[in-house]
Structures are given as structure tokens and as C-alpha cells.
Fold ADP-ribosylglycohydrolase family protein.
Amino acid sequence: MRRAEGAVLGAAVGDALGAPFEFGVGGALSAWTGNGGAEMAGGGGWEPGEATDDTQMAVLVGESLLERGGLEPADVFERFRAWAAAEPKDIGLQTEDVLTGGLPWDRAAAAHFAVNSRAAGNGALMRAATSAVYFAPAGRPATMAAARSLSALTHGDPAAWEGTAIFHELVRVALSGADPLAALPSALAEVDPAHRDRYATVLAASWHPDLATEFNGAVWPCLGSAVWAVRTTGSYPDAVRAAVDLGGDTDTVAAVTGGLAGAVYGLDAIPAAWRTAVHVPLPSTGRTLRQAELTELARDLARAGAAAAGGSREATGSAPSDPYRVHGLGGRAG
């Protein structure tokens, strides 16, 4: 259970730590603390410990899974849409376009992708910690399928689905106490062949974020940077610090890093001061979640996911849908 708590809290803490440095240069966190600045000090329009849209959307996903007894894409999408209408402080441009365009859940992202051709941002990956915890007990095929379905609600590019599916699988392995890095080959074998080579490149042990060919707001270097940060450090704090110090989309890279590192090291590895400071405002509900509520959410997701994995489909809500079919892209290759 401490690993599940670590995944959810870890993602929120990474998000909040990185938020003040978003779109800044590399090394900004180290420079700030080296000059006497305190970590989790806020800045850039963010309160100390305030989480961004990354964690807000993750909470909405988690609460839908619990309240609906499983994955109901239409319900998740409506929660997203209400949240977007409440004018959150931060929201990705692509996500905003999809959620405010007036199309239903099973057409909105695909229509956006058809017009824009590319939609492989990290906006689906960033919110995946809660769903990764919930679907972990269901095993590799189910957790990767669920990740794709959730990603497809806002991101029409299958590249975004595959990155989120890999993250789900790595968290699943970490929650079991095994090494998620050792599971990379088996996870990659489940990736759609059209996207497998690109992910194999950024997830290789020899890869460094300096080798990225896109800004880390794209799904490939975002996931690759998170795995790099966990691989090259030995603790939760060092992993998220390394992620923030990469610069660029610091809140999201650190949120993804924090979710994976939290699953690896557990809740107690996250500095207590960071956990105490973190808070997640939800403008669509008027609530603000803090450490206690986030911890309870993580526990509930882990328990409910385990119960769902052991029950029948009818008893546990909707089974993960096939985004390749729902969005009119045909069946998966391979």
C-alpha cells in the first residue's frame, strides 16, 4: 500500500515541485536552492506546494474510477469538461481544444487529431498515476488497454496512448516490488509496432534527455526523461530534482517521474515537508485535496482495483474499451 500511496502522492509532489520552473532553462532548481532558495517555495503564479492541471486531472480520473466502479470513458470526459469550464489556472492547449469543442467523448479527440495531424503531447501521460494504481492488479494487458482508452479521451495520436500504456505497466511492476526498468523489454513488446522503435530509443539505458529530438512537452521525451531520472538516481527526491533540472515542461516531467519513483520507493521516501505542502485545488468542485485526501484516494484506488480485478466484468463496471476501434482507426497492428 505504501507504494500505491507513493505513486499518487509522488506524482502530485513532483508536479508541485516543478511548476514554478515550467518552460525555464535547465538547472533552474539547483540554481535556486544553491542561492538559498527553499524547495517548494512556489513562484511563477503558483503557491508553495500547489499542484497543476496534471494532478487535478489525475484526481478526476481516480474519483471517476471509484465512483463508477470501473472505467466509464464518458464519465471521465464529462468530469474533464466540467473542470475545463471552471477555468483552471493551467490547462494544455490541445486538451482545452478537445474539451471545449462541443463534440462527444468518443469523437472529440479524434476530430482534433484529424485537423491537427499530430497530437502526441504529454497531457495524457501526466495524469496517469491514479489510473495506473487502480488497474495494476488487473495485469499487463488490462492496465495497458485502460491507459490507451483514457489517453484517447483527449489525445487522438496513438503515440500518446502507447506512452501512457508503458507508464501504466512500469508502475504496475514497481507496485509489485519488482524493478520496472528490468520490465522495459516486455513492456515494449506490447507497444504498437508503429511506435515501438521510437519508444525503445528514448527508454534505452544509453539515452539521455540531451539526445531528445522534440521538446519534452511531447510524450516520447517526457516519458524517456522520467525513466532516465529514475535510472540515474537512487532516491525519490533525487529523481524528481533531476527531472525538474532538465528544464522545459518541468511540472509534467517531474509529475511522471514522481509517479514512477513514488511507486519504486514508497510514500515514506518522499520528504515529509513536500508531502505536507502539496495541495490540489479542483476548481470544478470547489475542493482542495491535501496529503490526507490524496493518501486516502491512493488507498481506495488500490483496494478497489484489486477487488475489480478479482470480480466479474458485470460487477466492476465497464471493461477498458479499444481506443483504436472507438476512434475509427481499426484494430491494432501486431
Residues 94 and 101 are 11 Å apart (CA to CA).
